[in-house]
Design brief:
By secondary structure, the protein is of the alpha+beta class. It folds into two domains: about 100 residues, Fusion Protein Consisting Of Minor Coat Protein, Glycine Rich Linker, Tola, And A His Tag, Chain: A, Domain 2, CATH 3.30.1150; about 130 residues, TolA/TonB C-terminal domain, CATH 3.30.2420.10. The protein has nine helices and eight strands. Strands 1, 5, 6, 7 and 8 form a five-stranded mixed beta sheet that branches. α4 runs antiparallel to α5. It starts with a strand and ends with a strand.
């Protein structure tokens, strides 16, 4: 079972740059209202780590968008174009399950305010925002969870942890477990950022995230749902889920694949 520990900022972001550049190129839809399909496809894809860097320090601005309808939950995928000066010139909503125009409009506005610095050429980008994927644990639930975990660690005869990755046998396609694990491991530094921020907000260690992934035939995360995450800070779950949406898995053989993934945080 992968265990993710908190990392210091200086150690974290060089890893994000090195790892996400090499194996997490992301994928952006052309988007309605953007450049023509041919023009958009000619532009290189903006790497996820550059999007994370641009959003750093502005996370609260994006979260405020969801506060315009705090009882809603879901995801919103924004696609955008950036010129060579690093300015967002166009943005659009590719998909949203939030169902509130004021939330979607706010996310677009905040995306257009991002600055990416000087680039070699115009690029296209995509980011999926997630809100309230999982409900937070109460103090009592969290205490019971930690107590149970300690008892299992102390018991030499405790059963083995469930595997970190389980591919559903009913999936039309096939994707090796180790390929899923290797792709997700690339995102560990990004997940550590989410966890570190959660510790700064609540100073409560421990927990786990467990997601059900629907990976399409091209290796992109088509949808993601909570499958029993146990975190005291729900924003950390949302943040890690956004990192999953930025990943590109190897293309499954024979069609889409559904899988669950569990990550322990300590």
């Amino acid at each position: 079972m992968p265990v993710l520990c908190s990392l210091h900022t200086r150690a974290l972001f060089p890893l994000v740059v090195a790892l996400l550049t090499s194996a997490c190129g992301g994928s952006a839809a052309a988007g309605k209202g953007l450049s023509t399909a041919t023009e958009a496809s000619d532009r290189p894809v903006l790497e996820p780590y550059k999007i994370v860097f641009a959003m750093r320090g502005h996370e609260r601005d994006f979260r405020v968008c969801f506060m315009k309808s705090p009882h809603q939950r879901g995801m919103a995928r924004v696609v955008f174009e950036v010129d060579a000066e690093g300015v967002v010139t166009r943005s659009d909503l590719d998909e949203s399950t939030i169902g509130k125009n004021e939330v979607d409009s706010c996310l677009l506005q905040q995306t257009e305010a991002l600055r990416f610095g000087s680039l070699r050429q115009p690029v296209r980008g995509s980011w999926t925002f997630v809100f309230r994927l999982a409900e937070p644990l109460s103090d009592k639930e969290r205490a019971e969870l930690l107590s149970k975990a300690e008892e299992e660690d102390a018991d030499e005869n405790a059963e083995q942890d469930e595997p970190s990755v389980v591919v559903e046998s009913s999936s039309p396609g096939r994707l090796d477990v180790h390929q899923i694990e290797e792709t997700i491991e690339v995102g560990f530094p990004l997940f550590a950022r989410c966890y570190r921020d959660a510790l700064n907000r609540r100073d409560r260690k421990g927990g786990s995230v467990k997601f059900r992934l629907a990976i399409d035939s091209e290796g992109r995360v088509e949808s993601l749902s909570d499958a029993g995450s146990k975190m005291s800070d729900p924003l950390a779950v949302d943040c890690i889920a956004e990192g999953f949406y930025a990943m590109n898995f190897p293309a499954p053989r024979g069609g889409p694949v559904s899988a669950t993934y569990r990550l322990e945080l300590d």
